[in-house]
Amino acid sequence: MKTSYDILKTLLRTEKGAMIEKDRQYIFRVATPATKTEIKKAVEEIYKVKVQAVNVTNVPGKRKRVRMQYGYKSDWKKAVVTLKEGSKIEVA
After folding, report:
1. pLDDT for 34-56, tens place per residue?
2. Which of 29, 37, 72, 75 maximizes the CB count within 10 A of its CB?
3. pTM for the whole structure
4. Contact between residue 25 and residue 81 where contact means Cβ atoms under 8 Å apart
5. Cα 61 from Cα 20, distance rounded (Å)
6. CATH 3.30.70.330 given to domain 4-83
7. Which residues contact 4 (CB under 8 A, 6 or more apart)?
8. Coil, helix or strand at residue 51
9. Which is nearest to 55 in space by CA: 23, 90, 92?
10. pLDDT tens across 3-18, in order?
11. Using CA atoms, how far apart are residues 82 and 27, in angstroms rounded to an integer?
């Protein structure tokens, strides 16, 4: 059984993430097989907030080169979580 900490990998702190925080939206890196309902439950359990909506996207890995060989970074899943009015995640 997956725990909430297995579903949510990290809270992404990027420029875009900082701009959309004022709209009560936060960006998370999540486990690839996680569903929207699992992500919603995990955020509510860990951060003790109410979630309004969850949008997810699969991010393809970038092509990288090491010397003469090409390879790819691994694919990952990104979730944009919108919180209900009055909810907020305290970010240090």
Report:
1. 999 999 999 999 999 999 999 99
2. 29
3. 0.90
4. yes
5. 24
6. yes
7. 41, 42, 45, 46
8. strand
9. 23
10. 999 999 999 999 999 9
11. 9
